[in-house]
TrEMBL record:
This is Transposase. It comes from the Bacteria. Pfam families: DDE_Tnp_1_6. InterPro entries: Tnp_DDE_dom. It comes from Hymenobacter bucti. Residues 255-376 form the Transposase DDE domain.
Amino acid sequence: MLYFLGYEVDEDLPWHSTISRTRQLYPAAVFEHLFDQVFAQCVSAGLVAGDTQAVDSAPVKAAASLDSLREKQATVAPSLTVAGKPVTLAPAAAVHSAPAHQLRREATRRAKRQAAPGGLGARHPKAQLLSNKTHYSPTDPEARISVKPGKARALNYLCSVAVDTAAGIIRHIQADFADRRDSAHVPELVPQLQTRLAANELTLRDFVADTGYSNGFNYAFLEQRGMTPWIPVFGAYKPAVEGFTYEAEVDAFRCPAGKLLPFRNYAPSQDGNWVKNYRAVYQDCQQCPLKMSCTPAAPQQKFVRSAFDAAYRRAWYRQQSRAGQPMRRIRQRTVEPVFRSLLHHYGLRRVGTKGRAAAHKAMLLSAIAYNLKKLLKHQPKQTARVAIALYPPPQGRCTPHFSPRLTSPKLRRVHLLAKPTHSLRSATATVVYNT
């Protein structure tokens, strides 16, 4: 290792902070450029197909503990007086504070859960309800509280990875906040990925991910950018409403009684997406003989569908097709082994830096090391070839080169020319026949 680094045996090594502090001083663009260079070498070696990518994400522990959490204070915006008028300024540390109404709402919800019979307060009187809305970590303010099924709650960052399906080369990696859904990072991830592939003259066609990336906007966004999203829809989604028929030409549903439920308006949902409201005419439902079996409690029938319902429907039928299950197995055998290697062998079980930008650098370095190891272990296929040049025999009798009499003393001479090349071993045999 000393020889590789250029140090003599008796020469003093640099202090570790020289490397760690230098890494902090370099911007993330330097690490991105290094990742692009290694990825380009993998493309030149034929390790990247480029047409299909598998995407997944996993939490990575931050360099902070839950014991360091502090409660956020109510937002107090400083004010100044300019020309006799008060001017409100933005708070200096927004991550350490939260709106007062949000803190009151969370405190009320926490008190109800503590006081509920059989709730958390009855089982664990000293337990605290921790939330990103009410708490922050002074050690690493950008780390977020998150929990994954089967694992303990912790302060994490989210590592999003895109892997090529040809040889498992990492195409893209980024650090995100752990308190957001996986589907929220697709609009940021895809343009960067397409830019890197276009720089290497590759085109992305199939986007493979799990149900966590299921989102109507993502389906429409990927289709608009020329990709086929192989993302399973949520189990609660139904492409059709039982007893009702959708008529695309008028954008309305027709009920069993033959009445139309036309589109009324768009509205935002609780998770930030947009939905379409369909509602029947009040008089049609009041005079309908099927009202008691159709909508006994409401005055009229209404539906709420996603604003990207057409893209949802295409994704559902794509999932049920013959190619849907093979695409799911491709994702499982492509991206999940990569994550296991990054977490257990490449230092991403826990990042030792603070801040999202520093975590992004650490993830980039792990991905660079992973791709370099793949590149160094890659051996191009070598084909052994043997070429035998046979000259036309002269007039008279001759002995073929494949005859048992080849070793006879009557044979004048046999001249073998072996000339190895860089990529394969070839031999040219020249046989001189006896007469």
